[in-house]
## 1
Amino acid sequence: MEVLQANSYCMECRQWVTDGSKHECPIKHRALIDTNMSGVADRLYALGVVPMIAFYGFSNDADDTYRLRISIDLHQSFIHEVLGGLPRGWEYCRDDGRINSLEFNDWHSCFEEDADARVSEIIKEFEEFLDSRDIEGTRALTLLAGDQ
Ligand SMILES: [Zn+2]
């Protein structure tokens, strides 16, 4: 599993931050993410489930096929599943009983030439899932289920 092209992204401005010292937003609005994960980061941020790090990678199976994994570490931990039931392959990961990351583990493997298409497909599906969430309701839930 390797980190691919992770860059600093400001979710408040929806901009990539190339020089952190010149960007004025507080650091809490920034996430370290793969370039194709900005749509997911924007949507999670709007829902109040703020990501801190989001990247994908492939594990290499013995038969030269590849299996997609996506990991999204959250800025804040939650006691409840604030996004409700997640799409197939996704799960809430807990530490000490609190949800602090979201993970995707693909249920089938793909050949190297299909890997990019698989990433795009899964990311697009997850964006559509996030678009289907109710922003006000989810934000209210994150306040109740969050750190405070
Ligand atoms: Zn900013």
Note: The chain has one domain: 7-140.
## 2
Amino acid sequence: MANGQWPMVIMSLITSLQPYLSPEALSAVCDSILQFKQQNRSHVKVFSTDTLSVLISHLNWETMCNKLLSKELSKQYKECHYLILPDVEQDLLVVLMSTASLDERQLDPDDFKSHFLDAEHHIICPIWVDESRTDPCRIHLQCANVSHYTLFPNLLEIISNNEIHAEKIRILQAIETGSKNVTCCFDVDITLKMPLADEPFKSIADDFRRYLQNRLKAMSIFDLVGPAMVGPSSSHTAGASRIGLYSRHIIEAVIASGEKVDSLKVVMYASFRDTGVAHKTPHALGGGLSGFATDDAELLAHGDPDYLNEHGFEIGGQHIAFEGYKKGSLEEEKKFAQQTGNNIAEIIFQTDKGSHAIAGFSVGGGNIEIRYYDGWLKSPINGKSDMRLVNGRLETCSDANEQYPTIEKIFNDEAIAAPAKLPFNSFEEMLRYANEKDKDLIDLIVETEMTLQDTNREKIYSKMASYWHVMERAVEQGLKSKTLSLFKLSGKNASKLNSYVHENMLFDNLFGRSIAYAVAVNEINAKSGLIVACPTAGSCGILPGVLKAYEEARKPSERSICEAMMVAGFFGMLLFDDVSTAGADYGCQAEVGAASAMAAAALTYLEGGDIDQTVEAFTIAIKNVLGLICDPVAGLVEVPCVKRNGMYATQAISAAMMALSGVKSFISPDEVMLTMKEVGQRLHVDYKETGRAGLAKTRDGKKVENAFAGEIKKFFG
Ligand code: SF4
């Protein structure tokens, strides 16, 4: 917005707000807008939808109350109401708050609560969206368990995707349920400039549900440090194998229900189709369908198309013929257009009663969601729990809580146990929470993990220790290895680096060793060896590289190393609560960049940094990876990935050193995280693991791609 337009905007604001605010509050609104302007934000169109995320981090409930209302009222912030006045043409957004009700409609807390809670079974429907309406110019949506921090951007995105001309959006946040599983409920009312037909209305309600659903994954530190897997890619190999394995369980359930399965084919879409062969995605899907886990050395061999053409699948006591791996066309892919995620596989199988289709999405770091089974699932299967067949019925179970909702229930969208939610949504909130509760970082992390995953302290430490042992082995093997990868793009460099570092005093330190060790682990990954994704396989060298070099220098206890890994996982979890870890979604900044920040936080913790310094180290590292693109040559996770792990191991150490010395990031942590998201979203799709640009399209890169073309043909014919 040009500076000259400012007075006009303020005038229009004041006019809009006048009916709702006292003169004092109104003048506080103006002050706060001017403050924003003085903070040099005029160039980013203050209150524009583009910068909404940034605004939200500033204008959270407490900040808004503190700014606009008296201190006393701010204590009651949970009873306040929002009103948003969007102006699509001017790209203007006004956020107003008031302690008075903005609408004639008042919520009855008990009524609202009853939609979410099943008192008898102590279960809740994690998400509920009311689609009812009586007025074609109004959309009324209700939902639970979503923070304002999440709700606003999602809502605005839906409005803009659906090209709705909204006059007013009213959000009433009025309910605290008292349940640890339902943190808040929202009642949203959108007044439109023109009437909306039933069909688009339905699509908006569906979109809204989908967006919110994506937010309901109970995250774990092991989503970011883990799984142990055979390489080369967490999203394209580990995620794909999990999609295969979960599909196998669904097929088992179909067989148990009396159907005879004759044949099966696997269709790949988007990034799975474009770069999957290079990442061994087909092998992993087939290996998972054959029943192999992500870290099983046999996984990829059993997914080889030649092997499957000859042997087919043995599932549920039946022999199933393999019809091959297929490329999904762009036209077919449109059926998934409403979905977020760029790594999609569809498993289509024929039975004596017809055809069934399962669609799974790999959402980064080895995490998956099965979102379709003969149609869209209102409650996706998120792949965090094991599945098993019990007395002919397919059940999921988390390894700790021993609850077994049946798959029929999941498919029918009946109420399922909702995941516990993080008690904070941002770094700022986390720091405040730790301060208020007087918690040290490790206690906070362990207690949060125990609540979210219903597990216990010993299990957390022992799982982390087992991952540390896998990491150590990968460093050792990588340093010894003298072989090159299949296309000779990587291998042997770790051993060269290691010899050089150990012979050269100048480089034989934390920096030098961490480079050699990070490259060692990533070379093992490139050769489909066993590694731990952290947060992904492409970036799996940085954390072990830094930790191993540190361990040699300082000799910390194994327990301390495990705690540092928890810090890495926890901070990654806060970052990825809002974005995906896949380079295919947000570029390499979300893989190598995040890994570097996680290692920086881990190192700061090990060196005795306090919680603020640990956050600073993480933030400084993220700031310096923004915009890092994902452009692997021939889609193989080798160039630039392997050397990049070495490079960013040193960035982690630099960020930790800065934070430990007292250097602070000028930009607040949450704004940095939101900026990463913004940059990732705006990054051109060609720079998101498609192999269509960047280093992948250089002369030398193309040579490898051509050589690789024969390999791709083998899969798709
Ligand atoms: S360039 Fe980065 S994001 Fe892309 S595959 Fe390599 S490590 Fe992963």
Note: The two ends are 54 Å apart (CA to CA).
